Amino acid sequence: MEEWVLNTIIRGLALGTPLLWAALGEVYAERSGVVNLGVEGMMVLGAFSAFALAQTTGNPLLGLLLAAGAGAAAALLHAFVTITLRANQYVSGLALTMLGLGLSALLGRRWEGLPLLETLPEVSAFTYLSLLLAVALWFVLYHTRWGMIVRSAGEAPAAVDTLGLNVALVRYLAVVFGGALAGVGGGFLSVAYRPSWTEGMTNGLGWIAIAIAIFASWDPLRAVAGAFLFGALFHLSFRLQTWVAPEPLQMMPFAFTIVVLAATARRGGRAQGAPEALGVPYVRGER
Amino acid sequence: MRWIRTVALVGLMLLFAAAGPGLAQAKLKVGFIYVGPIGDYGWTHAHDQARRITERTLPIETLYVESVPEAQVEPFIDKLIQQGARVVFTTSFGFMDGTLAMAKRYPNIIFGHASGFKRNRNMFTYMADFYQIYYLNGLMAGALTKSGKIGYVAAFPIPEVKRHLGAFALGIRAVNPTATVNVRWLFSWFAPAKAKEATEALIAEGADVFAFTEDSPTVIQVAAKKGLPSFSHYSPMQRFAPQHVISGQLVHWEAIYIDFLRKVLAGKYTADNLQNVDYWWLLAEKAVELGGDFGVPVNPVWVPKLQAVRVNTREFGTVSVYDLVMRRLAQMSKTPVAFDPFTGPIRDRKGVLRVPAGKTMTVLELTTMEWAAPGIVGPWPKEP
């Protein structure tokens, strides 16, 4: 019994960490009013760049740093298209996912199948850093002036504009920051969770991160719960196959995480509901 | 002057009309449709390697499309034919019905479908199968397990995977009558995160040797990190864990492609006589190979360990497991084979007699196999 509990927690932390980073990034982007469906693309670019640099330098942490840069660069593209050019956010995000998958596959051909000598442990100081980051991001979002500006950009961009603040700049920063976090999440996959590079290795985890951000009501602390719960249940869905039929078990982590997050949503609290201006490009003077 | 222009024009047209087919006949164009990305390090990668080797070997030109969704194969076949392909290979079981429909629409094009069972006068089927190799891997796994539990991370509960698991289990039980194969199903051909968690679950359950069906080296890496050995799958994955990969299964699709296309070039196979052409190629035809790397049937690191385990066999007396593997390999590399893993009497794990004494399973029985061999532990969807 003890072994089961301990093992499930460890597995939950291991898979939950990359999901958490990506989900936190999406929380910030969406809080500022920009949907970014390109998480999968940003993560896979992060995974590739982290692996490539870690392989060359032997330092996985340097790899993660580059992953952050790659994710941020990809997100910058999305920000330019959706904030400056005011294109449809959903279409741009989907395009970013395809771009990320395609570009990483193309660049990654010669890295395919190479082993990584120096890896990051799956559960390490980095895990605790991730938890601290989530708490810090929650604090910033709800208890600082910066957080209020980000949230306002997503709820009432006109009000932010009236205050003399630059809505576009706020959104740019939130989206690019979100991309950097998604990149690190992807990088974690290729230097820690499963140290190697394989084309398309994120395999849908980016979409799960988006779902976690939404079902966590765009709250960083609830995203922590969602990510680790999903990670633990995902592992259990294989552990339990001896006793439960595998077909329904496939859905269990998804269904259970959604039910838990939905059931614990605070009614009428500040965390409820999507940001008012989510998905809507801001144009001064238009409502 | 007008008639000069007309004559020139007609002359040019005649020239092109004559040269056009001549140019097209210069090289046979062969199209390949892949279900995954060519960098998947598994099934599609292996087919693409074979395509390259075939192109280097024969006077042909190749085209390919990767990551084709199984339900949308028809427009992609159309595209390849428009680009001049006269032979089209579709390399996934799910392409079967779409390929057959296109074979009927294009009676002059030659089609080849991998791993299926539907044929037409212009469509043949082919498969390079691993079941003999899984049996050999099973012999080694049975000798090396200490906990008596061998982990298997499996893709989909379909006959192909069940057949491989069955041969693996029969091999294990041949040297270790009490060992079990504990199975986890992924319901994916490529899903590194699933493969990772399934392996972790098997490790937690006490499994200490691993084999798998999934198109990434995840299982090998996860097991090696815990110091546990495994068998490579499909591609040469030994380099991912040089100390921990014991052996594995390797494919040479080019053996089939080259043989078939040679016969097409020689005029032996046409779009009219393929109704009964089925390549079911195994060790003897050199379509598959034992090992985690080409030319290395057993990782030298593991040879002494396998030589140290001795078993009593009816056929060879008391021999080391290494010698047993090599003898069985030699027997199965001959034509006709001197040994088949699915030789009766074989009962399934429920005790039902599946292969009577003295009989071996037919290709049709193998390709439709649903029962679980003794020693397999875990869920078995559609178990008869």
Jot down its keywords:
heterodimer; A: 287 residues; mainly alpha; 0% strand; B: 384 residues; alpha/beta; six-stranded parallel sheet; four-stranded parallel sheet; 12 helices; 38% helix; globular
Can you walk me through this structure?
The complex is a heterodimer of chains A (287) and B (384). Chain A has 287 residues and is an all-alpha fold. Helices cover 72% and strands 0% of the residues of chain A. The radius of gyration of chain A is 19 Å and the shape is globular. The relative contact order of chain A is 0.21. With 384 residues, chain B is an alpha/beta fold. Chain B is built from 12 helices and 17 strands. Chain B has a 6-stranded parallel sheet with strand order 2-1-3-4-5-11, with helices on both faces. In chain B, helix 2 (43-57) packs parallel to helix 9, helix 5 (131-144) packs parallel to helix 6 and helix 5 (131-144) packs antiparallel against helix 11. Mean pLDDT of chain B is 92; it is low at 18-24. The chains are: A mainly alpha (287), B alpha/beta (384). Chain A binds chain B through residues 3-4, 7, 11, 15, 105, 108-109, 112-113, 115, 193-196, 198-201, 203, 205, 234-235, 237-239, 241-242, 245-247, 250, and chain B through 37, 39-41, 157, 182-185, 187-188, 190-194, 196-198, 200-201, 204-205, 216-218, 221-222, 235, 237, 239-241, 377-379, 381.
